[in-house]
Write the structure tokens for this entry.
Amino acid sequence: MKKPYLLFTALVFFCSNLLAQDVIRLKSCSDELINRQVDSLKNLYGKDGYVLLKEASISMESEFEMPVIVPLTQGSWYQFVFIGDYTSRLYEVRMYDWQERQVVFRQKKWGDVDGNVIVYSYIPQFSEFHMMKPVQVNKQKKKNLCGYVMLFKRNAAADTGSVSPALRNP
């Protein structure tokens, strides 16, 4: 009598594993070109009075968003940077507030001057979590695309100068 129950339990367990969705896990990656761009941007923003709050290299899959959740403080001036794999053809970043309203959308294509780098400023109206969703499209490499995200905050002691015009997005 006990064997049919054991067999039924094992069958249910295996079937539930077959129906489970794959989860995209956050994994770091390394790309020499991206690392040079990161170092350059850190120096540039450090000179402009920004402090690096968060940074991460992320292994991405083509056409899949990689959500990054960050707490932001009302009235503070933030600078977000996303650097994608230089072989990708399209780069996008969308940012949403806590109520899931899209507050930022930026898109770059491979042929643009600074094609694999998306930079934007943001001053939140409320202190709350925001979600940044970078995505890149690559026709040759579908998996293991390297991406890098950085969050800078304007230092309160810094003068009220503006960000370098070469990196400002319209």
User: Anything to note?
Assistant: Helices lie at 2-19, 32-47.
